Amino acid sequence: MGGTVNVESLARWIRTFARDIAANQDLLTRLDSAIGDADHGVNMNRGFEAVVAALDKHRPSNIAVLLRDVVATTLLNTVGGAAGVLYATFFLRIAVAAGQERSLDDLAFAKALRAGLEEVAQRGKVAAGDKTMFDALAPAVEALEGALAGGAGLSAALRRATVAADAGRDATAPMLARKGRASYLGQRSIGHQDPGAASAALLIAAAATALGEASG
Amino acid sequence: MKKLINDPAGVVAEALRGMAAAHPGLRVDQQNKVIYRADAPVAGKVALVSGGGSGHEPLHGGFVGLGMLDAACAGEVFTSPVPDQILQATKAIDAGAGVLHIVKNYSGDVMNFEMAAEFAAESALEVRSVVIDDDVVGRRGVGLTVLVEKIAGAAAEQGRSLSEVADVARKVNAGGRSMGVALTSCTVPAVGRPTFELPETDMEIGIGIHGEPGRQRLPLAPAKQVAEYLLDPILADLDFTGGDGVIAFVNGMGGTPLIELYLMYHEVATILGKSGVRIARSLVGSYITSLEMAGCSVTVLRADDDLLKLWDAPVHTAALRWGR
């Protein structure tokens, strides 16, 4: 039996995210100007433009090839900064979890996202409340797992994950940054949304758009 | 935005082309954006590689050469280099005595160098890493990085082993502290507008080197007062009295003229003198910058006889050269 998430739909997820990053590049840069060094939008857009170019050239035979060789490797070598490593790490770990499969069922996909999230936390040495991308990703993965466990389909579960990611992103505004460039501002980081959490929320929303539609 | 550029996206690559043209003693890999000593790998010598975002020139490329770095990896403006660049550089300069990575303490730099070191270990290369975190406000790697590269570079040139060179770098990091002030913001070419707005009447205290706002915004004050703002936290953080004295470094952030840096150095020297700190060596100039930001940083490094001898040892790079 084929799973609900496959190479084609995952590639669609990445392309959707790339489009949303391009559309929100200025917003991400503005958020990063307030508490960082004003490069998150520029860097993410450069990276995902390269990923889309790589997707146009390759026809990945399985999920691991798509997410490791095309997506993660390209990100690692084009984005730079913490975001490059962390997004690459996320996709790399999902690729490892997927192995040679061409498709994953809902639960296996959620498990792969959980593994990706944990690897991001380890590589970035981040925890909940540090005011990073983790604060949007973690509640999203949790909501996805909870919805699936409650019997929801992937589409509904990803919609709930999107709501949780957006809430997680918004909740970073009052936080005191403990990681990344924003942490150097001390109290002055309070009151600004974290740009990494903002891009991570776009990633989950893109998953709902691209992966949810096919599975109903 | 008013800059001497052709295309915001091409700034780093085009500047590297200029470095190559101006300094025949360097070899520049345009593809990977790495600047090498032309004679690297140097047989029997521990190799030093550093790197970071561009926009801090002359750091790091200006410090490649005899007595300092063997390679410098250039990232995009204010963005760390990527693991592949660092790995290429590490492989290219390894002469069998091992490679030291000198990393400024920013999460992006640390993670990218970490991944490169993991990849290098898979290729059976011996790599040690030293993370520089001299900024008293946020433990970022700032001015002291220049002194670490000079002193560890001299230790490697003397033929010391990888663990000895790493120990020297760690000793410098442990004995040095820095603090910076900004009078203006700066503009990242790809963004096109200043990173933050700073009125004529204000300054930012506790800044890093990425045009980011500092810990505190205060009304602009006379240089004498600013020197106190910078030195008080440094002197409170570490005891610099006794020993063989200190190396005192007043660094320009890119948009402040040397006349102001020397004026600041006088204030710094006066305060250090009153505090019982003896200055053994000094450095004044713009060596680790934040594009065109106006302002400066002050670095104080506790030195012993060994560190001073390494400081005095010959160096020949684009931005620092003496004793040869």
Shape of chain A: globular
**Could you say what the CATH topology of chain A is called?**
Serine Threonine Protein Phosphatase 5, Tetratricopeptide repeat
CATH architecture assignment name of the largest domain in chain B? 3-Layer(aba) Sandwich
What oligomeric arrangement do these chains adopt? heterodimer
* Count of helix runs of chain A: 9
- Strand order in the sheet with the most strands of chain A: 1-2
CATH topology of the largest domain in chain B: Rossmann fold
Verbal overview:
The complex is a heterodimer of chains A (216) and B (324). Chain A has a single domain, classed as DhaL domain (Serine Threonine Protein Phosphatase 5, Tetratricopeptide repeat). In chain A, helix 7 packs antiparallel against helix 8. Chain A is globular. A two-stranded antiparallel ribbon of chain A has the order 1-2. Chain A has helices at 7-23, 25-35, 40-57, 63-78, 81-98, 106-124, 134-149, 154-171, 195-215; strands spanning 5-6, 103-104. With 216 residues, chain A is mainly alpha-helical. Chain B has 324 residues and is α/β, with parallel strands linked by helices. In chain B, helix 2 (83-93) crosses helix 3 (107-122) and helix 6 crosses helix 7. The interface between A and B is medium-sized, with 32 and 34 residues.
Brief sketch in words of this structure:
The complex is a heterodimer of chains A (about 220) and B (about 325). Chain A is mostly helical and about 220 residues long.
Key features?
heterodimer, A: mainly alpha, B: 324 residues, alpha/beta, Rossmann fold, Hypothetical Protein Tm841, Chain: A,domain 3, 2 domains, six-stranded mixed beta sheet, 8 helices, 24% strand
Walk me through the topology.
The complex is a heterodimer of chains A (216) and B (324).
Chain A: E1 5-6, H1 7-23, H2 25-35, H3 40-57, H4 63-78, H5 81-98, E2 103-104, H6 106-124, H7 134-149, H8 154-171, H9 195-215
Antiparallel strand pairs in A: 1-2
Helix pairs in contact in A: 1-3, 1-4, 1-9, 2-3, 2-9, 3-4, 4-5, 5-6, 6-7, 7-8, 7-9, 8-9
Chain B: H1 11-22, E1 26-29, E2 34-37, E3 47-54, E4 65-66, E5 71-77, H2 83-93, E6 99-104, H3 107-122, E7 127-132, H4 144-157, H5 162-175, E8 176-182, E9 202-205, E10 216-219, H6 223-237, E11 246-252, H7 258-274, E12 279-285, E13 295-302, H8 305-312, E14 315-317, E15 321-322
Parallel strand pairs in B: 3-5, 3-6, 6-7, 11-12
Antiparallel strand pairs in B: 1-2, 2-5, 4-14, 8-9, 8-13, 9-10, 11-13, 14-15
Helix pairs in contact in B: 2-3, 4-5, 6-7
